[in-house]
Specification:
Blueprint (H helix, E strand, L loop, with lengths): L5 E7 L3 E2 L5 E2 L2 E8 L9 E5 L25 E2 L4 E2 L4 E5 L14 E2 L4 E2 L9 H14 L5 E7 L1 H12 L4 E7 L7 H15 L11 H7 L2 H14 L2 H8 L17 H13 L5 H12 L10 H5 L5 E7 L7 H13 L5 E6 L7 H4 L5 H9 L1
Parallel strand pairs: 5-8, 5-11, 6-7, 11-12, 12-13, 13-14
Antiparallel strand pairs: 1-4, 2-3, 4-8, 9-10
Length: 368
Amino acid sequence: MSLNLQTNTEHFTNPLYLESGRILEPYDITYETYGELNDNKSNVVVICHALTGSHHCAGTYEDETKAGWWDGLIGPGKAIDTDKYFVICTNVIGSCFGSTGPMSPQLPHHNEYRYKFPVVTVKDMVKAQRILFDRLNIHSVYAIIGGSMGGMQALQFAIHYPNFAKKIISMAATYATQPWAIAFNKVAQESILKDPDFKQGYYDIETIKEQGLSGMAVGRMAGHISFLSHESMSEKFGREYKRTDGLYELFGKFQVESYLEYNGYNFTKWFDPLSYLYITKAINIYDLARGFDSLSEAMQRINCELHLMSFSSDQLFKSSEMKKINETLTEIGHKNHHYIDIDSAYGHDAFLVELDKFEGYVKDTLNG
């Protein structure tokens, strides 16, 4: 069977009431679907993306060599089988791949929002998706799956829309972002803000696409360190030195340095700096207990079958954080939750890279 990849954008004129008390209107949501919706709409699987991800989680576009970010997991015969399921992934509000974000035109004058864009939260991202699904006439789904910020969205769905999904799988996430992760985001934020080419948010978008933004590249390098682990870096790079560089050249490079440089600078040409600031803000202030007296009170709302997955060497969102969600659910007597810690040396990025370690679990969970 074919993947049947479709990309669409929906335009909304009703105000989106945000957690901050502010309003976003009008707004667009770009999304991608794969597979076929069955007659009773019981085969919908929602995928939630991470910080720099997008709605494009599987398949390849005509002009593209690199497939969607979870292509190994989604498709005909794969763990999330598009011969069976109708898969939908939306680009979050605040991002820069088609949904409304800081560089979108602000009505009525059509100048970009830039800093006038309101701070959005992970809960807001989920609310906007829920409004999109209503418009698509999808009022409940079979499953929701996401990793990292995608896993945060999945947990927000579980709490704030308790009867929306039958099954939810949240990977490499947490109940509230901890100081370690906030600290890495701080490095990125400062690096962007202090770059003269950022022009205090009034940069030219085309210039950035062409030349990148060195401050953002430095911030992204710090991010990459937090996504990997001590072990995975040693395994991946060792102490390999760049062949063309002399050991005693001041700016001669180890392979790990080349990797960080390449990924850092490349990234700034395709991801918008203001979107990066807004989405890292959403991650920093994410807290499942906000609006409740405690985490356990928030968890009492969960109705679905909930699967929690952590990765043993994840430094960004440690296994103990997912374990705490699991223990809280046990304490309050929630019957239908499962926790698994995947043994991995790859760090936080394992949920994107080491699919073979958990695709069987995802498949079994979906197949019941």
